[in-house]
Amino acid sequence: MSPSRPSRPTLLLVLALTALWGCSSNEPKPPVEQLFSDVQFDLTVPPETPVDAAIFLTGPSATFQGTDGRGLEMVYQGGRQFSLKARLPKNTAFTYAVRMTAPTAQVALDAQGTPEADHTLTAQENEERVALAVERFGAEGGQTGARTVFIVQVPDITPAGARVWLSGNQPELGNWNGAEVELYPAVDNAYAGAVAFAAGTGLEFKVTRGSWETVEKSETGAEVGNHTFTTGGGFERVPVVVKGWADLTTPPPPPPLTGDVRYLRNVVPQDTTLKPRDVIIWLPPGYEADTSRRYPVLYMHDGQNLMDVSTAFAGEWNVDETAQALVESGQVEPLIIVGIYNTSDRIAEYTPVPFPPEYPDAGRADVYGKFLIQELKPRIDAEFRTKPEAQFTGLAGSSLGGLVSMSLGLKHPDVFSRLGVVSPSVWWADREIISEVNALTTKPALRIWEDIGTNEGSGSQAETVADAKALRDALVAKGWVLDGDLKYTVVEGGQHNEAAWSARFGDILRFLYPVNQ
Q: Residue 451: pLDDT above 50?
């Protein structure tokens, strides 16, 4: 017996009920309230922030403690931006602070150096954005002392992972030794570093990649002036932009050297504690024409700054042009000039005694002098037609080079009899060079040029007229005669740089090597 089919009215009722059921299921449902907010934190950090900084948002609640208790880590986005996205319960008040945990532990400080107050947040929307900015980072207890922060932007040609340094006119900057304050990679493709100076300190400095062969230059490789800044005694930033590097640009050819210039490359001292160095030699007009004539010799320190602008880190003395003109015009005796390049150990080699605590490794002038006297001078005398006797041999330099010239001249008058003591660093080790003069028991036969500019720096460790005058007076007390065998000159407005020394180099030569002396 076959099953009975549903009647037509029953089927229509079923279809109608199904349609009503479908319509009711498509009606919009009321939204479910979201219990959490997705909060985007965007942090702008100070320009000196290390590029590898680890920065966290941290607070007392479990949410801002993170899974490991350190807090919520922010991610570096480039430029000066760090960011973090966190899911926070709505309508809940949170307290949090910005912390740096590496490379050193620091907290966010305000402009006065006081630790920032904690931030508070109560999220109410499904998505929110919080913009933060840190004025600077510092110690937990705050930081209110003097602090000068250097922010150095370098050009794109800078090698990846390059080490960048500051060198300048203050002891904290190495007194121009080429590499003293190493900067660290900072955010926004910069390098940064901080140094503490007293208020009113006049800074002059340059940026290098570790030596004067890698000093900053212009985009075309041209020389650039020193950066200058006078400190105010509080927290301050000094922005610096480097356009190029001496060894990484393709500069136009340097102007040709004047006269007959020779080189001794990579001269290696026998004492292995002294670094190898180049030596530049200027020969007088007529040297090759008259092979029987012999010449007096002037040895000079900081040889790379004397004649060749391509190696000079702050301009050159123009020794070759000046000497060529004066010899050709008969104003000075024809002579040979020997420039000994300095090294990164310049301070150590140019100082007669240590000067702790700032310079405990200094005081190696006697070792440097032994190299000059026992190795370099015999080689110069053997390879060139010199008058090797002391009465024809001079020694000259500026700043610490003036100091070492004075000291070695006093100790070795049997080798050097003519001294160019230019802008000498008399201040070294509490005027120790004056003590050397005062200790003389007999006056050596030295012809001495001493000079100083009236604008050579500020602070306790600067070349000053008072120091130079004290050295002059000590020499006079031992028997030197002003305008006789001692020439003392104060240069009004004279500064402590190669341009100033170049301007008076002609006068130095006229005094030390007069015609028919």
A: yes
